[in-house]
Structures are given as structure tokens and as C-alpha cells.
DNA sequence: TATCCACCGGAATTTATGGAAG
DNA sequence: CTTCCATAAATTCCGGTGGATA
């Protein structure tokens, strides 16, 4: 049934970008006189193709002429990480131990012509000094990708605000309409599935159910095909589609959890085990068990303030849900089926 | 309504790490 | 080897806030 699963990878780039002509146009225009390329603040909800749009448009641009460019994932990265990534992509050779100052200087020297740097998942960038380093590099135009442009601008320095408040700098990406997303799904289905196992109507159904969020739609289509295969169906059945959404979201969350370090896993598993808990209880548990949880580990237990940082990370990854305000706040895991591969609580029981 | 309280999250400060200079 | 310095992560400090309580 599935002829090419790579078509459904998050990293897969479609040959043509459908229903984003206007946005591609605006981005291209911002970059046109590359000698004075504009910065762009690109915003919109998760999974509607912000990353794909920039990669696609950047690909078109650099096919026409060579321009130094980079696409940097900034979520959870330090200033040094971002600069090293940028330097590597524009042809430099980061060693791994340069100072931020050195890196900034090296990048500047590498850019004898104007370049473009896309900062993906940049919601947390204001407030760090990453932007200071990047904006101090002449010749470098920035594309900032975030979810909420008001919040982003609100947190940024006045200098950065000014740089991103020029007319035409903002570019909003909306959710797809049902027929638009169905077109996108159709292109994937044609490439990755046997053509007698799906119908246009089913794709429209999925597009509607995921409210125009392309990433979830694509993952759901893939999950539906997997379910149909597992169940021995000849083609995708309504029940496969019905069950595909949980499977798709489950997979995205499981991946997110796996990418996080040990402290996050500890907190996650404590919450998952309890079902729902308030923060005082969570901290008590953590304190009780920290000796056994952290023995034989390089890491040591962390204090409450740091745990709060880990918890907000877990929440932003949609792994942990926070309900209620202030004193009566409760934590719970979004999908108890998502488990840490580290098997933390069984280690606890042995002790 | 007024006061209390838990606890979040920003900002400043400290600690840990590792490289470079003296 | 010791000292110094930069960075990132953790901790300390604390103001603000919205529900709880009386």
C-alpha cells in the first residue's frame, strides 16, 4: 500500500509548493535586490509550512544566482550553536570551541557578499543575545520564523523591533483551506501510496479534520495507510482515517520527548505516573526520589526553579498539559501512551 | 471585599566547564 | 601549573497575580 514512505517525512520537500504563490512572491521580492535584502518576520501556526516555504523559496533564489544562505534551527540552541551552524552552512569551518565573539567575526569575514539567514523556531530568541550577535553582522538579512509576531516583537529590543517594523517585513502564513490541503495531500498520495487505495474524498476529509494544518494532515494520511496495512485492508477504510489522528500526534510527541535530555524525562515520567498532580506534589516526589533517580548518572538533581524551566519546555512540546492558574495549577501528560525510553520509574523500583 | 497564598517566571548571580594566556 | 576569561546551565531572589478563604 505504501510505496515510498519518505514522501511523508517532515523533511520531504514537495517539487511544487501549492497554494503559496503569493507568499513565495512576497518572500522573493524581499530578497530581490540582494544587495539590500529586507528582513522578514514570518509567522503562523505550527505545521502550516513556514519552514517549507522558506526552504523552497531560498532554493529557487539560489538556483538563479549564488547567495550565501543558511537555515538554522534555533529552538533550544545556544548563541554559539546558532552561529556555528550558520558558519558551517555558508562554507566556514567551525571547530566547536570558538567564542561567540570569534564566531561573529568569522561569519562577518565570510560574507564578502550579502547573505540570508533563516532563523527557524525563533519564538524564544528575543531576550537571548543571539539576535545581538546576528544583527551586528552587516550583509546578513534575517528571516525570523515564529508563531506569534505580536509577542515576538513585544519581547525584542527596540533596535530589533525597529529592524522588523519596516513596511512589508511581516509575512503571515495562514492555515490551508480544505481543498488546498487536499491538493497537497493528493500530491503526496500520488508519490507515496498505491493509487487504488485512497480517494479524493478521503483526502478532503483528512484536510477538514486537521483544520488545514498540513503537517498533521500528511502524518495522518501516512498513519491511515499504515493502519490499513496492519489491519489487512485492501484500501484505506473510514476507520483507518478515524484512528489516524491519534497515531499521527502520538508519533510527533514521542519524537519530541526522545529529543529531550534526562531531567525532562524524569519530570515527564513522574507526571505520567501520577496522572495529574499539582506542583507541590511534583516537587515532593522529585525530592524523595532524586537520590535513586540520579545515582549512576552524570547529572545531578536540579532545583525547583530549573524544574519549572524544564516543565515549560515540556508544555511547549505539547507533552505536558497545564490546567488552571497559579495556586491551583495542575500538570498532566497529554498522551499517557507516550513514554520515556529511559524507563525511569522501573529504575526507581529496584532501589 | 479584603487579605492570603501558592507558585510562576523575569532578572541577576553563581557554578561548572574548558580553553588560552602567562 | 596557575590564572584568567567566556559560555551555558543552574540557582537565588523576588515581584506579580489570580483563585481561595474568611
Topology readout:
Layout: H1 21-31, E1 40-43, H2 50-64, E2 69-73, H3 79-89, H4 100-110, E3 115-120, H5 130-135, E4 140-146, H6 149-155, H7 158-163, E5 170-172, H8 178-192, H9 200-209, H10 214-230, H11 238-258, H12 262-274, E6 276-278, H13 279-294, H14 304-316, E7 320-323, E8 330-333, H15 344-350
Parallel strand pairs: 1-4, 1-5, 2-3, 3-4
Antiparallel strand pairs: 6-8, 7-8
Helix pairs in contact: 1-2, 3-4, 8-9, 8-10, 9-10, 10-11, 12-13, 12-14
The chain binds a DNA duplex (22 and 22 nucleotides) through residues 78-80, 97, 99-101, 127, 278-280, 302-306, 308-309, 312, 324-329.
The tally of strands reads 8
Main beta-sheet annotation: 5 strands, parallel
SSE-based structural type: alpha/beta
**Low-confidence parts, pLDDT < 50 over ≥5 residues?**
none
Helicity level: 40-55%
Whole-angstrom Rg: 23 Å
Question: Can you describe this structure?
Answer:
The chain has 351 residues and is α/β, with parallel strands linked by helices. The protein is 51% helix and 10% strand. The strands form 2 sheets. A 5-stranded parallel sheet has the order 2-3-4-1-5, with helices on both faces. Helix 3 (79-89) runs parallel beside helix 4. The longest helix has 21 residues, at 238-258. The model has no long low-confidence stretch (mean pLDDT 91). It binds a DNA duplex (22 and 22 nucleotides) through helix 14.
Amino acid at each position: 500500500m505504501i510505496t515510498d514512505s519518505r514522501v511523508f517525512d517532515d523533511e520531504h520537500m514537495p517539487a511544487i509548493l501549492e497554494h503559496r504563490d503569493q507568499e513565495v512572491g512576497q518572500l522573493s521580492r524581499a530578497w530581490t535586490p540582494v544587495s539590500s535584502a529586507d528582513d522578514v518576520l514570518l509567522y503562523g501556526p505550527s505545521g502550516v509550512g513556514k519552514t517549507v516555504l522558506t526552504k523552497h523559496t531560498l532554493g529557487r533564489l539560489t538556483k538563479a544566482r549564488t547567495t550565501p544562505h543558511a537555515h538554522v534551527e534555533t529552538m533550544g540552541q545556544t548563541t554559539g550553536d546558532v552561529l556555528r551552524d550558520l558558519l558551517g552552512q555558508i562554507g566556514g569551518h567551525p571547530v566547536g570551541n570558538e567564542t561567540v565573539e570569534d564566531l561573529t567575526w568569522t561569519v562577518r569575514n565570510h560574507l564578502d557578499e550579502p547573505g540570508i539567514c533563516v532563523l527557524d523556531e525563533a519564538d524564544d530568541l528575543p531576550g537571548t543575545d543571539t539576535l545581538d550577535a546576528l544583527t551586528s553582522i552587516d550583509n546578513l538579512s534575517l528571516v525570523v520564523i515564529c508563531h506569534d509576531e505580536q509577542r515576538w516583537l513585544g519581547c525584542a529590543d527596540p533596535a530589533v523591533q525597529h529592524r522588523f517594523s519596516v513596511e512589508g517585513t511581516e509575512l503571515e502564513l495562514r492555515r490551508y483551506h480544505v481543498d488546498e490541503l487536499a491538493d497537497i495531500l493528493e500530491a503526496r498520495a500520488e508519490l507515496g501510496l498505491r493509487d487504488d487505495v485512497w480517494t479524493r474524498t478521503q483526502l478532503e476529509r483528512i484536510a477538514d479534520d486537521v483544520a488545514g494544518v498540513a503537517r498533521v494532515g500528511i502524518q495522518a494520511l501516512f498513519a491511515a495507510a499504515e493502519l490499513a496495512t496492519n489491519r489487512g485492508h485492501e484500501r484505506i477504510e473510514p476507520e483507518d482515517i478515524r484512528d489516524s489522528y491519534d497515531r499521527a500526534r502520538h508519533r510527533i510527541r514521542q519524537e519530541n520527548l526522545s529529543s529531550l535530555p534526562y531531567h525532562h524525562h524524569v519530570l515527564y515520567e513522574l507526571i505520567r505516573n501520577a496522572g495529574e498532580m499539582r506542583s507541590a506534589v511534583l516537587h515532593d516526589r522529585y525530592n524523595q526520589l532524586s537520590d535513586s533517580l540520579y545515582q549512576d548518572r552524570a547529572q545531578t538533581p536540579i532545583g525547583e526553579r530549573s524544574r519549572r524551566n524544564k516543565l515549560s519546555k515540556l508544555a511547549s512540546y505539547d507533552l505536558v498539559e497545564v490546567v488552571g492558574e497559579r495556586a491551583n495549577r495542575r500538570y498532566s501528560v497529554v498522551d499517557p501512551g507516550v513514554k520515556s525510553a529511559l524507563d525511569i520509574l522501573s529504575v526507581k523500583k529496584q532501589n
